[in-house]
Amino acid sequence: MAIETTRSKLRSLLREYFPAAVGAFGEAGLTSREVRAAPAPGKAARMTRRQLMAALRRSGRERDLEVWADRLRRVFRQEQMRRPPLVEDAFGEQACVLPAQLEAACSAADRLAGASGEAFRRHPDSERSYS
Questions:
Q1: Which top-level group of life is the source organism from (predicted)?
Q2: Nearby residues of 6 by Cβ (< 8 Å), 6 or more positions away
C-alpha cells in the first residue's frame, strides 16, 4: 500500500512540474534509481552528456551510461511548460525524497518477509504436511 502510494505521488508530482521526466523514465519506471539523476527541468536542460553520465553513476547506474545520457539529454531539452526556477527547485527536492521513501518501504517489506519466513521455518510444525 505505502509503495503504491509513494509511486503515485511521484508520478503526480512529475506530471505537475516535469512531465518530460515521466516519459524519460517510462521504460525503467519512476521508481528506478535513474530518477534520482534528474534535477529540476531548467538544470536538466542545461546538463551536458558528461554531467548526465556522472549523475547516473551517482544514482547507481553502471552500464549503458552513454545510451541513458543521450536519451535523457534529448528528453530534457524538449520544449515544455515551465514553472519559476524556485518552484522547480522545490518540486525537485520533493521528487528526490519520494524515491528514497519508496526504497525504504521496499527494504522494510523485504526484511519483514525474510524475518517471517525464517520464523516460520523455525516453528516446530513447519515440516508437517496438512493435506
A1: Bacteria
A2: 98, 101, 102, 105
pLDDT-derived band at 48 (thresholds 50, 70, 90) equals very high
Exposure of 80 in the CB half-sphere (CA atoms within 13 A):
24
CA 74 to mean position of chain CA atoms: 19
Instruction: Please say if the pLDDT value at position 51 is more than 90.
Output: yes
Q: How far apart are CA 116 and CA 122, in angstroms?
A: 10
Full-prediction pTM beyond 0.90? no
Angle, to 10 degrees, between the axis of helix 85-122 and the axis of helix 2-17? Answer: 160
Averaged pLDDT for residues 72-100: 80
Contacts of 123 (CB under 8 A, 6+ apart): none
Question: What is the distance between the alpha carbons of residues 22 and 3, in angstroms, rounded to a whole number?
Answer: 18
